[in-house]
Specification:
alpha+beta, six-stranded mixed β-sheet, 6 strands, globular
Length: about 130
């Protein structure tokens, strides 16, 4: 990996981890800073979420309460697909359930920085290793 690739992947992973932090999830200001205005998500629940919905509701989603369960990520890997576009994959555990996750992070310019453009969570059945 080149220095540019390493820095892009590192920045995307840092953003992803911030979005898993209850303090960030519960902050509308931080959510606005980390989600791309064209963001969409297909959650582990199967529901589709838009940017507007996530900005308005992320603080109410599971994993956003300071005293509640948190998403525990593991095996985060990333690849620079093109300049300004990083793909991350990883797994989370949350309240005894597992999900495999995939995110696209986009950087349009230096001012806005890296922002999550797309996210998908897929539940992992208990009997799947």
């Amino acid at each position: 990996m080149t220095g540019v690739e390493t820095e892009a992947v590192r920045a995307a992973i840092e953003g992803e981890l911030r979005l898993l932090d209850p303090a960030v999830r519960s902050s509308r200001t931080e959510t606005l800073r980390l989600l791309d205005p064209e963001f969409t998500e297909v959650g582990a629940s199967g529901r589709r979420h838009t940017y507007e919905v996530m900005v308005a509701e992320l603080a109410e989603h599971p994993g956003s309460a300071a005293d509640g369960p948190v998403h525990e990520p593991s095996e985060i890997t990333g690849v620079l697909l093109a300049p300004g576009l990083v793909h991350l994959t990883y797994e989370t555990r949350f309240a005894g359930r597992r999900a495999r996750r995939s995110s696209l992070w986009r950087k349009r310019d230096e001012e806005s920085g890296w922002r999550m453009y797309y996210h998908q969570g897929t539940p992992v059945p208990p009997d799947v290793p």
